[in-house]
Design a protein that fits this description.
Elements: H1 16-28, E1 35-39, H2 43-54, E2 59-64, H3 67-76, E3 80-83, H4 89-96, E4 102-107, H5 112-120, E5 122-130, H6 147-150, E6 153-156, H7 164-176, E7 186-190, H8 194-203, E8 208-212
Parallel strand pairs: 1-2, 1-4, 2-3, 4-5, 5-6, 7-8
Helix pairs in contact: 1-2
């Protein structure tokens, strides 16, 4: 870790931030101008949204059920936000892409039914990345008839397919250059307020709580 970057923002790079950003920059590796939908606008999803901008994606769609998270995702650079409490995300993504679907879809929630939505949102030859950890033994059903001519791909991703010794310094360099402002996801709490940090995270009012010690 470089000494000129504050230590109290570096912790999340080791898990959630590395995972979301690596899923885009390492695993999916979209070409400039590609379209992407990120299902789940928590820490992992927001890191993916930041990385999609680094990759110069043209359309970046955030999907969540918490309005505040969607507002923040748009503030981070998502071009569109879809609240699943109000509309069907698959239908809306089709509308936003002129009926084509997205080139890439990233599932970060760990909810099997959301993975099905991510796959159904894909364009022909699209790629869905699975990041969210569902309970062991969880299953999801996919449509197989039309899939033969759609040619979509599903890939599973662990920790953003990253080599931390190489990828974390890359993220720090992007942060220094102002291209990856992951510090915006962080809110600090003194360790005595750990219960509030958990509560705020669960409610979605804080994306990535970081505990500090005096």
């Amino acid at each position: 870790m470089p000494t000129d970057v504050p230590l109290n923002i570096l912790g999340p790079l080791g898990c959630g931030i590395q995972t979301g950003a690596g899923a885009v920059l390492n695993s999916l590796d979209p070409a400039a101008g590609a379209t992407i939908a990120v299902f789940g606008a928590g820490a992992v999803g927001d890191a993916a949204i930041l990385a999609a901008q680094v990759a110069a994606c043209s359309t970046i769609i955030a999907v969540d059920r918490v309005a505040q998270r969607l507002d923040f995702a748009r503030d981070l650079g998502a071009t569109h936000g879809i609240n699943v409490s109000d509309e069907d995300p698959v239908e809306r993504i089709q509308e936003l892409t002129g009926g084509n679907g997205v080139d890439y879809a990233l599932e970060t929630t760990g909810v099997p039914s959301v993975l099905r939505q991510a796959v159904d949102s894909l364009a022909v030859r699209g790629v869905a990345g699975l990041l969210g950890q569902a309970p062991i033994g969880s299953e999801v059903a996919f449509e197989t008839g039309a899939s033969l001519v759609r040619g979509w791909t599903l890939t599973t991703i662990v920790e953003g397919d990253a080599v931390p010794q190489l990828f974390i310094p890359r993220l720090i360099e992007l942060y220094r250059a102002g291209r990856f402002p992951f510090d915006r996801l962080i809110k600090h709490y003194p360790f005595a307020d750990i219960e509030k940090a958990f509560s705020d995270s669960e409610k979605g009012t804080t994306v990535k709580p970081v505990l500090t010690f005096s």
